[in-house]
């Protein structure tokens, strides 16, 4: 039982990071596959609505392994949530917690602030900007950049690719500007 | 003729370098289950290390916590060492194929798209992998950012030829 108790605690970065890194050689050795999750968004377009757009007109069945991979992530989410969940509230930096309270975010149980990520808030301006516009930017931006955190920051950097380093730096610059200078105003809405 | 079609298909898919590492072998569909298992383990790590938490992403961009830097930094270190070892010892796949690496080409998209992606990451607190794990944890509303990420990808594909690259 002690092992289960240990697993239920949040894992430290030096446990989780190397495990994430091992995904790169695991996928390569299992079948010459390159770790890159945002490609699935493109495959979803190719499956559902290729609309004669050349970028989506390819044989997506050859990339079906990646859909199995994300299906695994989804199931991993369900398994962890139902069996291995941390029973304690998430530990947040004190300054950040104080700042969140000024936006009225005091319910910090769970992985997402329930006040923002809920079906009710979807129809408010705040919820729309965060979930709809934010989601759009993830999809548009990652494909424009040719990859996301997994494709560029992890597999690209693992293979010492300069374009991936440039992309990763831009991910961070974009995120820094949004989180520090724009998001606070959105949270006040 | 068939060969020509195949080449065109390969060219289209490789517009995106993520798509071109592929096995030349043909397998039954159930061979894909091994990727599902890797994904499952990966999803567990995502949640247990709170990588999928909106709060952790905000702390990272505000320099209020080392956690995410530690996760990404150590993941990259392990990745670099792994790729180095695969190249150095010419490690093959479990089917005995040579493991191929492809260089990524620089274009302006990595800057413009990168800035847009980073902003979306900070807003939603998720990148494309964690979104799937978030849905799994019962936060069903995160289907909405996923859906609009697919819409965003489609819109990119539609305007691709007009955008600066």
From TrEMBL, chain A:
Alphabetized InterPro entries for the sequence: Sulf_transp_TsuA/YedE
- Annotated TM spans: 12-29, 64-84, 127-145, 165-188
- Membrane topology per record: Multi-pass membrane protein
Q: Which family does it belong to?
A: Belongs to the TsuA/YedE (TC 9.B.102) family.
Classify the main location.
membrane
Chain coiled-coil ranges: none
**Keywords noted in UniProt:** Cell inner membrane, Cell membrane, Membrane, Transmembrane, Transmembrane helix, Transport
- Signal sequence extent: none
Q: Which domain of life is it from?
A: Bacteria
Q: Does the keyword Repeat apply?
A: no
Subcellular location, record wording: Cell inner membrane
Protein name in UniProt: Uncharacterized protein
Which is an annotated Pfam family here? Answer: Sulf_transp
Kindly list the GO CC terms recorded for this protein: plasma membrane
TrEMBL record, chain B:
What sections of the protein cross the membrane? 35-55, 67-86, 111-133, 139-159
Q: InterPro entries under this entry? A: Sulf_transp_TsuA/YedE
Alphabetized Pfam families for the sequence: Sulf_transp
The UniProt keyword set, sorted, is:
Membrane, Transmembrane, Transmembrane helix
- Top-level division of the source organism's lineage: Bacteria
The protein in question is named Uncharacterized protein
From what organism does this protein derive? Flavobacterium swingsii
